[in-house]
Write a structure and sequence with these properties.
- This is ABC transporter ATP-binding protein.
- The chain crosses the membrane at residues 62-79, 99-117, 176-195, 201-218, 280-302, 308-329.
- Helices cover 58% and strands 10% of the residues.
- It starts with 12 loop residues before the first helix and ends in a 5-residue tail after the last helix.
- It has helices at residues 13-24, 49-57, 60-93, 100-141, 146-151, 154-167, 169-173, 178-196, 198-245, 247-252, 256-308, 314-355, 364-367, 452-459, 482-487, 503-507, 516-525, 529-533, 552-565, 582-596, 608-612, 631-637, 639-646, and strands at 388-401, 422-436, 441-445, 467-472, 475-476, 489-492, 570-573, 600-604, 616-621, 624-629.
- A 6-stranded mixed beta sheet has the order 6-7-8-3-9-10, with helices on both faces. A 4-stranded antiparallel beta sheet has the order 2-1-4-5.
- With 651 residues, it is an alpha/beta fold.
- Helix 19 (552-565) packs parallel to helix 20 (582-596) and helix 22 (631-637) packs across helix 23.
Length: 651
């Protein structure tokens, strides 16, 4: 149905009101982002320690064992100064040592064994935390709405899976769990020191209190700097991914040195943020050592005076000093834990930003009531219903524009951070209506940017219409399960992506149970038999990164074969034959003829030869349907189509 025809009276008044409301709002039209464009990654949300706990609790049994070992090790350590004091008293009295020395040696060996096993368990558990976080993140990434990938850089997302998740390991390997036993040691040493000499303890606590206050003040700076550093690492990964992915274009343009300099600038930015983290950490790490040295000097000086005055014995002073070292050691572990946890929380903020995003189907239950049905649900797939129907569809891409942190109207809670990115809408389709009968071959033609590829994306439900409805067999797509919907549709994208791997890997992507015989049959159906025969490996022949081992025409036909192997009743072909030579174009037409038999085919046509064989042609311009019919009808009635046909190029 063309948009020049009278719309059905049954169209809801609510839809018209919604359309009027949308048209009344000011519309921001942002330019499409070039794949070569850059924009700064905005700081992600700050993670809290409670968000870190689920990653740790997943390994609760092992952590309980580690905590128990830590407590046992702490008790063994606390007994050592007591035995040393006993040894000194026995030696001063001139009595035989007996088993005291052996008991002390046994305690040292037990402590060493516990420490070694504990270290192994923590390292293994740390790797487990990294693994589980990567699984969660990858699972989330591959379920995100397509719109999220329109505004996020691939390299930055990869960096979150690789670099940011690695930061979580430090939480376990740098003192957090060991702090449990450290707390026991700290409290036990504190009590023992209180019994031995309250005066010396008071002086020690004063020194330690200053150290703890300093660490607390610096810890937040570590978290913020670590988060910024990880964001910069993401920028580096995005720049490298962009440069490698376009390396041929960059070489051909003579831009290699410029790209190297650009990546180096990003790398230097990451280095500067890493140095900032190191600078702040360098202020925290020595604090434990300084506290220990100052405390030791105070205890040694004041303690010596108190021994001379007879307030305490030499044995008690030695025991007190040993307990002092035991108290300072867990304090150093605690300071290390604070640093590692804050660094991990900076990375976790970037991970959590992705994990908190809704899945593609998160709002499907809310959208289903908006679906407009044709008759009762059980009549939606009647044979006389069209395969595909667009009913007054409006659609606009959601684009993000980075806000300016210097903007006086910045509403960000933190004045040093930019407010969230501004969401803008780029209208693409404006009231598109047409029907595709079952078993017919329909061609979509029009100038570049007319909305042809967007129509296929809406059918695949990569996006939902802003207004209107897209129906499959009479049912609104929003009422259908996405998996079931996509099982009915084969989709060949415009650039015909080929995955690294073998021919078999690519063919069985959507049909994992297909046999080799079926794979070979479908390859020959699209004129790819020669590809099988030229390599002794057959279906196991590698295609290279992005299908570099295949020609452009072969990649396109392989993508068609992949869709055909799944045997879908509807095939969407975003055909791109404008750059093919005559032989490849003929093979492509033969492949299209082969796959269209007995199927509903919607093809975006770029060559007149492809269009003429279609049952019906739909002409689009600026997001609207301006004509429908056969080639002869459109040449006579639609000036734009006639112009495109005269040039033999339907862009």
């Amino acid at each position: 149905m063309s948009d020049t025809e009278t719309r059905p009276e049954t169209r809801s008044a609510a839809r018209a009101a919604e359309r009027a409301r949308r048209s009344a709002r000011p519309t921001f039209v942002a330019p499409r982002r070039s794949p070569f464009s850059r924009r700064e990654t905005p700081p992600g949300p700050r993670a809290t320690f409670s968000q870190l706990l689920p990653f740790l609790f997943e390994h609760r049994p092992v952590l309980i064992v580690v905590a128990a070992l830590s407590i046992v090790g702490a008790v063994a350590s606390l007994l050592q100064p007591l035995l040393v004091g006993q040894v000194i008293n026995v030696v001063e009295a001139g009595d035989p040592l007996g088993g005291l020395v052996w008991a002390l040696v046994a305690l040292v060996l037990v402590s060493a064994a516990i420490t070694g096993y504990q270290h192994y368990l923590l390292q293994r558990t740390g790797e487990g935390v990294v693994l589980s976080s990567r699984k969660q993140l990858v699972g989330k990434l591959l379920r995100l709405p397509i719109a999220e990938f329109d505004t996020r850089r691939t390299g930055d997302l990869v960096s979150r899976v690789g670099s940011d998740t690695t930061m979580l390991r430090a939480v376990l390997t740098q003192g957090l769990v060991e702090a449990v036993g450290g707390a026991v040691t700290f409290v036990g040493a504190l009590v023992a020191m209180l019994i031995l000499d309250p005066v010396l303890l008071g002086l020690t606590v004063l020194v330690i209190a200053v150290a703890i206050t300093t660490v607390t003040l610096l810890s937040r700076r570590v978290r913020d700097a670590s988060q910024a550093a990880q964001a910069k690492v993401g920028d580096v990964a995005a720049s490298v991914e962009r440069a490698i992915g376009s390396v041929r274009t960059i070489r051909a343009a003579g831009a290699t040195e410029r790209e190297i300099r650009d990546v180096e600038v990003e790398a230097e930015g990451a280095w500067q943020m890493g140095v900032k983290v190191a600078h702040i950490s360098a202020l925290i790490v020595p604090i434990a050592g300084i506290a220990m040295q100052v405390s030791f000097l105070v205890v040694l000086g004041v303690g010596g005076f108190r021994v001379a005055s007879g307030a305490i014995t030499v044995a008690n002073l030695v025991a007190f000093i040993l307990f002092l070292f035991m108290m300072i050691l867990p304090l150093g572990q605690a300071f290390g834990a604070v640093t590692s946890v804050n660094a991990a929380l900076g990375a976790l903020g970037r991970i959590q930003e992705i994990l908190d995003l809704p899945d593609e189907d998160a709002h499907d239950r809310e959208l289903a009531p908006l679906a407009v049905m044709v008759g009762p649900a059980n009549e939606g797939l009647l044979p006389d219903a069209p395969a595909i129907e667009f009913d007054d569809v409006h659609f606009a891409y959601a684009l993000t524009r980075p806000s300016d942190p210097a903007d006086p109207g910045n509403d960000s809670p933190d004045e040093h951070l930019p407010e969230p990115d501004v969401i803008e809408r780029q209208p693409v389709l404006r009231g598109v209506s047409f029907r595709v009968p079952r078993g017919q071959r329909i061609a979509l033609v029009g100038p570049s940017g007319a909305g042809k590829s967007t129509i296929l994306s809406l059918i695949e439900r990569f996006y939902d219409p802003s207004v209107g409805a897209v129906r499959l067999g009479g049912l609104d797509l929003r009422a259908l399960d996405r998996t079931e919907l996509r099982a009915q549709i084969g989709y060949v994208e415009q650039d015909a992506p080929v995955l690294a791997g073998s021919l078999r890997d690519n063919l069985k992507l959507g049909s994992p149970d297909a046999t080799d015989a079926e794979c070979e049959h479908v390859l020959r159906a699209v004129n790819l038999g020669a590809v099988l025969e030229r390599d002794p490996a057959g279906l196991s022949a590698p295609v290279g990164e992005d299908g570099i081992m295949l020609s452009g025409g072969e990649r396109q036909r392989l993508a068609i074969a992949r869709a055909l192997l799944a045997a879908p009743p509807i095939l969407l072909l975003d055909e791109s034959t404008s750059s093919l030579d005559g032989v490849n174009e003929r093979m492509m037409r033969e492949a299209i003829d082969a796959v269209s038999a007995g199927r509903t085919l919607i093809v975006i046509a770029h060559r007149l030869s492809t269009v003429i064989d279609s049952d019906r042609i739909i002409v689009l311009d600026q997001g609207q349907v301006i004509g429908e019919g056969t080639h002869a009808q459109l040449v006579a009635s639609v000036p734009l189509y006639r112009e495109l046909a005269e040039h033999q190029l339907l862009a």
